[in-house]
Design brief:
- The chain is an alpha/beta fold.
- The chain contains three helices and three strands; from the N terminus they run βαβαβα.
Length: about 90
Amino acid sequence: MALSTYLPPESLPSAENATANVRIPYFLAHGRQDPMLPIARAEKSLEALLSRGYEVEWHAYDMEHTLCPKEIVDIDHWLEDVIPAD
């Protein structure tokens, strides 16, 4: 899960490693008005992960560098999907 941030290019999996880890789910969310980290950086991370075949749930919100109630609900739903219930 990456909230209001980005994945530096050197931290992204290589093409060789991507196939081994392609089942790892990602949740990326960012504010459209974020003055600290431009949304374009997060969008580049999104594009890089998608180009490697990763499953990414992406959300952009009308907010700055913070959390909003809709984002918390979306995180909750994503966690329910990716963490198996006992």
